[in-house]
Amino acid sequence: MSTETTLDELPMAKALNAGLRQALADDPKVLLMGEDIGPLGGVFRVTEGLQAEFGKERVVDTPLAESGIIGTAIGLALRGYRPVCEIQFDGFIYPGFDQITSQLAKLTNRGGGAFSMPVVIRVPYGGHIGAVEHHQESPEAYFAHTPGLRLVSPSTPNDAYWMIQEAIASNDPVMFFEPKSRYWPKGPVDFTASAAPLHASRIVRTGTDVTLVGHGAMVSVLLQAAEVAQGEGVSVEVVDLRSLSPVDYGPILDSVTKTGRIVVAQEASGFVSVGSEIAATVAERAFYSLEAPVLRVSGFDTPFPPAKLETLFLPDADRVLEAVDRAMAY
Amino acid sequence: MTDSPTVRFLTAGGAFEPTPGAEEYASYLERIGETELRRFYRDMAVVRRFDQEGTNLQRQGQMALWVPSHGQEGAQVGSAYAARPQDHIFPSYREHAVGLVRGIDVLAIVELLRGNTHGGWDPTDPSNGNFHGYCLVIGSHSLHATGYAMGLQRDGLVGTGDPEVDSAVLAYFGDGATSQGDVSEAFVFSASSQTPNVFFLQNNHWAISVPVTVQSRTPLYLRSRGFGVPSVQIDGNDVLASYAVTAKHLDEARAGHGPQFIEALTYRVGAHTSSDDPTKYADQAQHDLWVSRDPIIRLEKYLRSLGEGDAFFAEVAAEAEDFAADIRHRTLALTPPDKALIFDNVYSEPHPVVTEQKQWLERYEASFDTSPEASSVTKEQA
Ligand SMILES: Cc1ncc(C[n+]2csc(CCOP(=O)(O)OP(=O)(O)O)c2C)c(N)n1
Ligand SMILES: [Mg+2]
After folding, report:
1. All domains in chain A, ordered by first residue
2. What are B13-55's pLDDT values in tens digits?
3. Residue B179: which of A63, A91, A133 has the nearest Cβ?
4. Which one, B66, B185, B217, B332, has the greatest CB density within 10 A?
5. Could you tell me which CATH class the domain B23-332 is placed in?
6. How far is CA A315 from CA A267, A318, A319, B11, B266, in A?
7. Whole-structure pTM value
8. d(CA A77, CA A84)
9. Contact across the interface for A92 and B116, Cβ inside 8 Å
């Protein structure tokens, strides 16, 4: 257990910056590449100061081409480097989709295990920032569906600090989804020890009546909902997924065995989503513990709308509570 | 195709001194007289003021984002006037001046950047001058422009010899966009099919914080030649060069002589967007140099040398003020979009999932309504 003095209050963007700095310092094979990550420090300032500190060879402003960024990262990985790619916004990852799904995800398998693909792709994702089209999407399901990729998403500055380093240390490709609306709120960071392994899910609030599961920015919404539910006499347990592929079902199943009710929430559209997968697995593995159907709360199955409508699209605490009410009605 | 020295008619000081490269384009200036020059000036000045108003409105919280066009008015206005009414325009997202020339109500740009809409104007409505939607995914639309030109070819609208019929497609993108595979593929496809495309690059020297030297070690106009698309470089802050060169190459494209690539050298005087902080990367000397090459001041000096007096410039300044005041007024009167916009037009034909979710949201919202009329509705879920 850490002492008070090892805790720093940092926003997630700064915690990521610290994690990246540590990774660059620890391993000369690590390099960062992306659009505007040098002098500008990235449009979210996650890489601020890193080029000045580690040089243009380690923190590379690339030409403007996502396929190029990921394709060359693959080549660098084949040559023994550990590239960390920044995709500027969720909606701009698709020009790199072919390199991610046909190459990055499959090369280890194609090579019969002779080499690995230690590439990290950082993707600021999700809504709540009032931005224009292509800047608020949650594309994680496309990648979760692709065998060969690992997907994680921190919800706190502390997890961000540790998980980015663990992702970089992984010999597999890791898609690192950063909930961009959570870049700014501060939270404690314990620089002495990681809170949990990279692919562990974690109970972040205990309760006895309903289990809520989510990832990224949704976790803070779930905690808000839990607080309100508490006031209404409903005891809610909240699980932070942290890892979207693989999913760590242990804590989820333990929780639902206790509560008998579960609501899975996400910003992404619900159809064929991470939430769908978790709902199906819980129904398969915890059937006899369930007092109510597994419920999902998701973004609508529509394109992310213009920013002025985003609060209607994105599940908020009320939408989660509506599902909690339905679960409790059984 | 010559080994194009930069085409320029007007020097930065506003003197009419064509470069050697400008010679083959000089005859295209015969199409315009002082009326057109005054119109060019007027539109450039109005858009400059519109852009300033956009920045102000964004700062006052009326928009989430503003995308400045400051400095690029010469490249945009000249090329836009070179297009005929039947031509089609595929912009990226900074071509406010082109939109204005083609007749869209530029309030739509405010609505787009405010977060009221993903579109803003209907490119199929002839009153919008065949000005297609803004495209925020860098380079993507270069291929749409190519495919659209293929369609014009198939429809027999190219090379008929009838100036009212023959059509071309003018596509705009930036220096950063040239690095995207899509733009190279657009060159490949347009050369392969000899489409009536003019690709208009505004090399404003920056892709957000990344200087153009990261995208290309050679002048960008050379990029397309290996793909079989002839090219030329122009001084993009000379509205006359922009007009004449675009006019010639659109003529050739309409006549069926295939695609052409124009690199307009210009400068993004403002920030990339209102979210950007150029103090982290900008080069002050470069900035100052380009400010001294301002396209509007340049044309003003030229017009004055032709005898235009203070009255005209004062009149334009007043018109620009009125334009900005009107935009401000109408921006402040904008109402939030209807929530139906989330669900409508996701598909052209009815879709059961979207229909169900739209109805669900109606009921869900109604469940929060505590007014007496709504009291019969409970917070239920079917
Ligand atoms: C595919 C894609 N990747 C990244 C971005 C983010 N982005 C928006 S504008 C921009 C720079 C574009 O530079 P340039 O093409 O030169 O056009 P300019 O903005 O200078 O007009 C970037 C990287 C994007 N919009 N689309
Ligand atoms: Mg540019």
Report:
1. 9-190 (3.40.50.970), 202-328 (3.40.50.920)
2. 999 999 999 999 999 999 999 999 999 999 999 999 999 999 9
3. A63
4. B66
5. alpha beta
6. 6, 8, 6, 57, 44
7. 0.96
8. 10
9. no
